[in-house]
Amino acid sequence: MPDINQQTIADRLGISRATVSRCFTNHAGISAVTRAKVFQLAAELGYTHLENRSPAAKKAKARPAFSVLICTDTEEYFRGEYQSPGEQILAGVSEYAQNNEITLSVDLIPPETTDLSGPVMAGLECLRKRKNRGILLIYPFARKLVEQLSLRYPLVSLVEQQGEESIDCVDVDHYAGISTIIDHLLALGHKRIGFYTREYPNKASWSFRRYSAFIEKMARKKIRIHDRDLLGIFPRAFKSVEESITEAVERTKNGVTAWVCAADHQAYDLIDGFKAHGLEVPDDVSVTGYDGILNRKKSKPLTTLEIPFRSIGMTGAERLDTRIRKPFGDRHHVSISGKLIKGKTTAAPR
What we know:
Order of helices and strands: HHHHEHHEHHEHEEHEHEHEHEEHEE
């Protein structure tokens, strides 16, 4: 296999070798987006700048090797409509790794994977040969698998794992985000606001957190919530996205003027569903998302809460580095605030 160098990275990304070199020296003229792409590809190829700078650097004491496990279907992760949150989190992890001489291995794990002894996990070279010193988890995993991994490795989750408060976690401040979204809708004059989410193969802790934040904020504002305006979560879960959209249409005709969606991809589906049923956003109903994921195929920018995914990735990698060096330290749960993006999917109710 040919040596991986900066020219290899430059060729893969279609940029100059000088640009790649400046990324590794933190040159002020390089954008954060370009730097993140270079660091992510470098991590995937196993290239570490400081280890290749001189023979003396190769003799330096080895730093930890991290494994990054992303719970997602391959097709979903590489969807072309928008950049996945996992990809943005990984960019932050990669940047920290490059700046601290840490090598990374990255693997996509199907959501149905539930056991460490199963064929998927048993086939991972990073676990089989025990090359890694710690593991970063992106997206919710099956609880049993998280428990098994936590007994063998230092573990940090970059999205909270349902029911796993015993491991370190770096996540967005769900309450602050939902609170900001509701304040925006109230300022526009909305008084009947619904909540929309859906069930996932693994319990999505972020969805439950945003739901509970919605309930708390509405209670603090003394705004009545109609039980039938809460969709996609117990006891009003639906077997399909189409069924949930049909119910959202019915509730909108019944008086809901705005929907708070637990995630951007849910909001995009809901907006498409409303259009198919003859409802225009935001003329007939307002819709908000959560994540800040730009959908390149949509002409109307979404009103959403932008999450600093790269910052979550960098903070999580730093936390794992600390956990490896201080294995008996206190567990940390770090919450990072996002910011409201006012798109064109919200307006004053009719």
